[in-house]
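Report of the visiting student (M.T.), summer placement. My assignment was to run the structure pipeline on a short list of targets and document each run. The first record concerns alanine dehydrogenase.
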Amino acid sequence: MEIPAIQGLKVESSLMPLEKPSQLGERQQRLRIGVPSESGNAERRVALSPYAAALLVSTGHEVRIEAGAGAEAQFKDSEYADAGCDVVDSAAQVYGESDLIAKVFPPRADELDLMRERQVLISALHLGGLEAETLRRLMDLKVTGIGFEFIADSDGTLPIVRMMHEISGSMAVQTAARLLESSEGGRGVMLGGISGVPPATVVILGAGVIGEWAARTAIGFGAHTIVLDTDLTALRAIEHVLDRRVTTAMANPTYVESAVKTADVVIGAAMSMGQRSPVVVTEEMVATMRPGSVVVDLVIDQGGCVETSRPTTPSDPTFVCHGVVHHCLPNLPSAVARTGTFALSNALTPYLLDIGEAGSINDALWSNVSLRTGAYVYRRHLTKKSLAAMFNMPHRDIELLIASGI
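After the run finished, the structure tokens were exported:
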């Protein structure tokens, strides 16, 4: 079994210490965790790696995983079976025999049909493509829905989102470097240039986690890197972290227009926690970019921060608008599915263990502020003000709902 912290080293499972199943405490709940395949979502990751599944099984929980769910991340069904999981033939079995569903993508309509009343769902929500009907279906089923985008630690950081954003930021620059090649319809320039030839200019919209990791990677390529944000504190922080190897500027319309016009690559990383991402680059600005320039909109799952962006798929990842190549995959970390699965598992597993230890989802939500912050539907109620405003729906405070026993 492979340990995520040392992916490059092979360790024979026979040489690894095996965890001894612990006795279930008085408050601990034996969770029946279901992990469906994400293949219908054009997604290569899976919610749990075999190593994470083994940890959950060793603490007394059951894990059911759909056959082939880990194939695109190079995890065999036999690895999950060796970890103690029940490998089942269909998604219907996963949903029908589980109390908690752990997913990467939000459930599709056909998956909602498979869900049972009062199940717990932990997955991404993808605010940019979310429909009110999905929320209504979950509420009708009295599901407790917990979204990756909302799970926050006490210091305000988003641990699951951060993991994915680190990958996205790095992957965006790798992707842009390839799309700039002549064979891909790009300008035919190298990000780092060579002796006597200046480097490409990479403009990053947003100085958060995505922006930081995109800037790190762009600098590593040797590109001229500019980061724009409306938060001066965030700009100071990224300058400090990157030793002033990055140029920063306030993201007012004048600076944005000027930077985008001369950019070889624009990376969209501007987002607002739990809300639709703001549109920073207008279609008029895109129209001023040079033919063959590249836009990689990393927040398309939150609606996108470039006006001309629209979601694309792994089978058709790009389109051209105003001569500019656009890459707008909602699940860019899926391109490195194995790394992405390990990263997601590392962040998600502690929350699953906390739910089991608490004894019930109610107790877990009450005692764990991160899970409580992550909840967006609870029983028949919407619990996020931002979603209520987005869809003009009523909402209730989750703490009051739990305390009242509704």
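The chain is about 35% helix and 15% strand. The longest helix spans residues 337-358. I thank the supervising group for their guidance throughout the placement.
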